[in-house]
Amino acid sequence: MLGKLLKYDLKWIYKVVVIFYILAIIFSIVARVTGEIENSLLFEVISKISISCAISMAVSSLINSLMRSWVRFTQNMYKDESYLTHTLPVKKKDLFNSKVISGAVCIITTMIVILLCLFICFYSEANMEILKSLLELAATTYNTTVLNLLLLVAMVFGLELIYVLLTGYLGLILGHKSNTNKMLKSILLGFLIYSITQIATVALIGIGGLFSGDIMNLINTVEAVNIETIKNVMYMCVGVYFGYSVLLYIIARKQLNKGVNVE
After folding, report:
1. SS3 at position 94
2. Does the pLDDT at position 114 exceed 70?
C-alpha cells in the first residue's frame, strides 16, 4: 500500500515541478547553444539571459518541491480529499511515510536537475580543468578525497532541505489541531520550530567551542582557523540536521497518530 500512496503523491508533486525542470533544461540548452556562437553580441546577450532564466527555473523547482509537498500534505490530510484518505484501510504512519519519502525524493531529483543545468550552461574543458583543480586543492586542504568532499557538501545541503521539509510537516500537523486560523497557525508554528532548532544549532556549536579553541575562533572572528576545524563543523552539521530530521519525524508521526481534525 505504501508503494501506491507514494506513486500518487509523487505524481501530484511532479505534475507542476516537472514543468520547472523542463524549462530549466530548455533555457540551459539555449544558453549553451547561443554561447557557442562567437563574435555575436546578440547571441551573447541571449546566452546570458538564458543562463539567468535557467538558474531562476532551477531555484523555482527547488522552492516548488517543498511547497508542493506541503500543499499535498495539507490537501490530502486535512482538506476535502482527507474524507476519502482517512476511510482507506491504511495506517496513518504509512500516509505520513509516503509524504516524507515523496518530498525527500523530489528534493533529491531537484538537486540532480540543478547540477545538470549548471553542467549544460558552464561545461567546457577549461572550466572542468579549473573545477577539477579547485576540488583537488580543496580535497587536499581538507585531507580527504574529491568524492568524499562532494558527498559531504551534498549531505549537508540535502539533509538541511529534508529538515526544512519536516519542519513544515510538523508545523502543519500542530497548526491543524486548532479550531480556527489553522493555516496561519501552521505557518507561525513552522517558523517557530525552525527558529528554535536554529538557536539550538548555534548553542551546540557554542558548546563545541568550549571544548575547541579553533571552533570558538571560527565563531568570534574571521581570522584563519585550522582546516580540520572547518571540516569538523561540516560533519557536525551533518549530524545535527540528521538528528533534527529524525526528531521531527518522530514527533510529527506521534502527533499525527493522536488524531486529525479535517476541515
Report:
1. helix
2. yes
Q: Which residues contact 81 (CB under 8 A, 6 or more apart)?
A: 75
Which residues are CB-contacts of 179 (< 8 A; sequence separation ≥ 6)?
A: 261
Q: Are residues 102 and 180 in the same domain?
A: no
Question: Per-residue confidence at 12, pLDDT binned at 50, 70, 90?
Answer: very high
Q: How many domains does the chain have?
A: 2
Question: Position of cell 501530484?
Answer: 12
* Secondary structure letter of residue 248 according to DSSP: H
Segment 226-243, tens digit of pLDDT: 455 666 777 788 888 999
Burial class (CB in 10 A: 0-12, 13-18, 19+), 20: buried
Domain-located, residue 129: no
Does residue 73 sit within a domain?
A: yes
Highest-confidence segment of 73-87, 222-236, 240-254: 240-254
Could you tell me the residue range of the domain that residue 17 belongs to?
Answer: 12-123
Our measurement of the distance from residue 193's CA atom to the centroid of its chain's CA atoms, rounded to an integer in Å, reads 17
Q: Which candidate, 73, 150, 151, 61, places its Cα nearest to that of 106?
A: 61
Average pLDDT over residues 158-182: 92
SS3 at position 145: coil
What one-character-per-residue DSSP string does 48-66 give? Answer: HHHHHHHHHHHHHHHHHHH
In a domain, 227, yes or no: yes
User: Does 160 share its domain with 109?
Assistant: no
In-domain check, residue 88: yes
CA distance 58 to 121: 12
Q: What are the phi and psi torsion angles at 118 (to 5°)?
A: -65, -40
